[in-house]
Inverse folding.
């Protein structure tokens, strides 16, 4: 249902304002399309005038319609006669059906290009269902971006009958929340994401309290615990489907956020009675010593009040966009590497879009409060709600809000964070946040200590994932310690020693060295190539996205780069990298790998990874659309440029080119011909090998034919799972089921290896399955001879390979092909591991 309330429309552009009847176009001026206003723009990006849903985008990207929460449909048309530009000069920044917040950038356009090729830049904003609403102008002067320009009031009669296409049944259902810890940030984000998949409006009811399912803070604010009963209410055209999906999402347990698996874990610290000892709670085990360093939050300058709202709205919107862009960039790096961290930062992105939070801040601004204070107050209010719930897990989620409070404040105040930490510092703070941890992990710190905080907070999860000792709830005394003071932290025992003796420091240092020695031995073994017990060499390469990651991988023992995702060069910038820049970047990766081979995958954008400078048509099913090698067919110049850069790196014998998303032989042949033509043009005779990713079922089924022309295969199990199982690889609710150990995938891998073997080609795996220790015997058994894994896992995977025997693996993997589910395969893999250890132990005993 629409809420029938008045809404304010804010200027989507800045520039002089014109009444509609002065627009030099009779269709707009005559009001045929609806009532509204026009702006002659001075800036190049159209922003959302209010929060709402994108209900239509012109194919040619020059016009967009948004439905506000009161049902008003706002059409914005950039320039006059711009349809004839066929999309040239316009870059879409949102997708159809997406929810947008007020001020969110919608379409970027090339001012000069549009001005030169069209009648006018005058941009119209009108209500396409204006028969149901009254428009009350707020201003007639030139407007700044985000300034209030119109009030939209539902007409009384319309209010009664206004059910629009959002009409439909209201349906409701009750469910017990199965998520461990209740509806904290990640399960709340899952419900929100599920609700977003439907047109209906959905709400969560608990007693007499209600939260709209588009707001993470509102959901968390209800304080719903594990096994609490809630009611879900959906209203709209697809309400029944929405309800079914939401009930299932609420009733399916997700992987919880576990406290550290330490027997010594306590949830409450011991009192600080002992001199020289601060007691806290272990959030991540480990023993460390080092000088204390403080990390403090942003100090908010005083607000004189009475601020003009327009610029403050703008400043807040700009800061929110900047933080979102920064989180997006972090996510590119974290995805596929640190799953937990990626999920946490995805929840942060959802919080930054949260209508309750953002609207609350904008309302404070309307009262003359500075953007920094408005944002701070909006966050503090939500933190107070979460902390008052008497649910520790939810109270700890206030830490995520504080993280965003700090990040946005820093963006607003223009503060850059540059840390100057002594080596092996023990970092102390009132409470650290996930983004602090991301920043700190770029320095060589020894441990983390917090005066407040909890063992199940996101920052604790991240510390555990990085093996960094972490203590929380140490109390305010921690903050009285002087920077530089040398401490010992024994996280497992839950305490900090503030005045350790020299002997104690030696003892800790000795323990630290012994641990480092063990790691060194593992690493030394990682430098040697991995052979199975019967002598078969399996190459363990690394998946990397830059030259510095390649250098790290080499240090960790990688036998080569099995997948260089070249997207790293193309994302987060406004123009494409030219041939020379690409050539240097690829050469740097080759140089970083010494004498080892490097597989470079051609650009795999499209789908959900869009580039500002490469506008592609809006697609209903982007992952089934123009992505991977298909992009080379629609934008051949882009692929040619990349191929030219690749042909010029040296030595060519160490460079292997790999094509993503190939689904038929002709695609491969076409690229071979292109490479021949480009090499001839460049006068180059040496030629890199050309391989194909097997990540579409069609490619696996055609493996034998592809192997006639490909030099090698590398199986992309991430996409192969997505396309074989028809499950979105990024769908939070399906994450546990998108399992590459599904027998259907194993059959495809088997077919791939058989097809390759017929033509003497080798097969690698570069999807996440290659880094899964349970899968190592299966893949070797099916005939894979190269595993490309995340760099820190090289040593572990090599150690596993050395325990295996090829013929055992072969017999075992053949049996798995007959199983019925991924679960059954996983169980069989676990049993195989146990059986093998027994066999090896008894063989050793007999041999002795
Ligand atoms: C894959 O799909 O398994 C793969 C390695 O490619 P990406 O994850 O980059 O799509
Ligand atoms: Mg892929």
């Amino acid at each position: 249902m629409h809420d029938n309330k008045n809404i304010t429309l804010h200027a989507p552009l800045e520039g002089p304002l014109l009444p509609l009847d002065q627009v030099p176009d009779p269709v707009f001026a005559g009001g045929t399309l609806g009532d509204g206003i026009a702006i002659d723009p001075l800036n190049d990006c159209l922003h959302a005038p209010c929060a709402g849903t994108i209900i239509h985008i012109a194919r040619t990207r020059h016009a967009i319609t948004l439905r506000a929460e009161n049902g008003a449909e706002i059409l914005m048309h950039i320039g006059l006669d711009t349809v004839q530009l066929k999309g040239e000069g316009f870059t879409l920044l949102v997708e159809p059906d997406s929810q947008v917040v007020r001020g969110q950038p919608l379409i970027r356009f090339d001012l000069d290009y549009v001005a030169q090729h069209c009648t006018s830049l005058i941009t119209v904003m009108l209500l396409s269902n204006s028969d149901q609403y009254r428009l009350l102008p707020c201003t007639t002067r030139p407007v700044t971006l985000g300034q209030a320009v119109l009030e939209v009031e539902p007409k009384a009669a319309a209010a009664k009958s206004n059910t629009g296409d959002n009409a439909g049944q209201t349906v409701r259902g009750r469910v017990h929340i199965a998520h461990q810890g209740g509806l904290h940030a990640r399960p709340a984000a899952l419900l929100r994401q599920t609700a977003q998949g439907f047109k209906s409006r959905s709400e969560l009811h608990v007693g007499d309290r209600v939260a709209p399912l588009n707001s993470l803070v509102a959901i968390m604010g209800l304080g719903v615990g594990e096994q609490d009963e809630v009611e879900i209410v959906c209203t709209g055209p697809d309400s029944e489907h929405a309800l079914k999906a939401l009930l299932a999402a609420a009733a399916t347990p997700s992987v919880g956020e576990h406290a550290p698996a330490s027997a010594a874990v306590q949830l409450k610290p011991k009192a600080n009675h002992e001199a020289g000892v601060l007691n806290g709670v272990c959030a991540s085990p480990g023993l460390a010593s080092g000088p204390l360093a403080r990390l403090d939050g942003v100090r908010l300058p005083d607000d004189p009040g009475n601020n003009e709202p327009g610029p403050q709205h703008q400043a807040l919107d700009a800061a929110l966009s900047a933080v979102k862009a920064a989180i997006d960039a972090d996510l590119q790096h974290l995805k596929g590497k640190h799953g937990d961290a990626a999920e946490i930062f995805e929840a942060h992105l959802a919080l930054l879009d949260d209508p309750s939070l953002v609207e609350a801040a904008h309302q404070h601004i309307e009262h003359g409060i500075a953007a920094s204070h408005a944002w701070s107050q909006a966050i503090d209010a939500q933190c107070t709600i979460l902390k008052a719930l008497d649910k520790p897990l939810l109270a700890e989620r206030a830490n995520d809000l504080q993280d965003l409070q700090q990040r946005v404040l820093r963006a607003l105040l223009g503060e850059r964070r540059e840390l100057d930490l002594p080596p092996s510092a023990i970092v102390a703070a009132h409470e650290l946040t996930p983004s602090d941890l991301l920043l700190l992990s770029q320095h060589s710190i020894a441990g983390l200590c917090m005066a407040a905080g909890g063992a199940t907070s996101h920052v604790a999860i991240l510390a555990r994932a990085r093996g960094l000792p972490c203590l929380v709830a140490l109390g305010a005394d921690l903050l009285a310690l002087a920077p530089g003071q040398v401490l010992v932290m024994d996280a497992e025992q839950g305490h900090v020693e503030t005045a350790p003796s020299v002997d104690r420091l030696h003892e800790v240092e000795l323990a630290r060295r012994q641990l480092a020695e063990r790691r060194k031995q593992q690493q030394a073994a990682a430098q040697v190539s991995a052979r199975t017990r019967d002598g078969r060499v399996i190459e363990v390469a690394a998946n990397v996205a830059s030259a510095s990651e390649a250098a790290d991988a080499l240090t960790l023992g990688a036998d080569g780069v099995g997948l260089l995702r070249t997207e790293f060069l193309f994302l987060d910038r406004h123009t494409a990298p030219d041939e020379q820049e690409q050539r240097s970047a690829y050469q740097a990766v080759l140089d970083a790998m010494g004498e080892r081979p490097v597989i470079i995958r051609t650009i795999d954008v499209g789908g959900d990874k869009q580039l500002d400078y490469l506008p592609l048509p809006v697609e209903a099913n982007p992952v089934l659309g123009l992505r991977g090698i298909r992009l080379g067919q629609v934008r051949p110049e882009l692929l040619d440029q990349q191929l030219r850069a690749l042909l010029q790196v040296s030595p060519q014998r160490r460079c292997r080119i790999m094509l993503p998303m190939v689904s038929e032989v002709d695609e491969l042949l076409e690229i071979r011909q292109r490479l021949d033509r480009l090499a001839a043009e460049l006068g180059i005779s040496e030629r890199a090998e050309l391989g194909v990713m097997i990540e579409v079922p069609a490619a696996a089924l055609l493996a034998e034919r592809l192997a006639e022309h490909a030099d090698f295969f590398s199986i992309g199990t991430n996409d192969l799972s997505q396309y074989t199982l028809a499950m979105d690889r990024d769908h939070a609710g399906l994450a546990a089921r998108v399992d590459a150990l599904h027998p259907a995938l194993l059959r495809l891998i088997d077919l791939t290896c058989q097809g390759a073997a017929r033509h003497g080609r080798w097969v690698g795996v570069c999807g996440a399955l290659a880094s899964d220790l349970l899968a190592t015997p299966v893949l070797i058994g099916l005939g894979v001879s190269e595993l490309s894994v995340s760099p820190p896992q090289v040593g572990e995977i090599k150690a596993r390979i050395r325990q295996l025997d090829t013929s055992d693996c072969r017999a075992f993997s053949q049996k798995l092909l007959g199983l019925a589910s991924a679960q059954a395969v996983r169980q069989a893999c676990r049993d195989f591991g146990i059986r093998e250890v027994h066999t090896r132990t008894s063989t050793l005993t007999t041999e002795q």
About this structure: Residues 309-413 form a domain with the Enzyme I; Chain A, domain 2 fold (CATH 1.10.274.10).
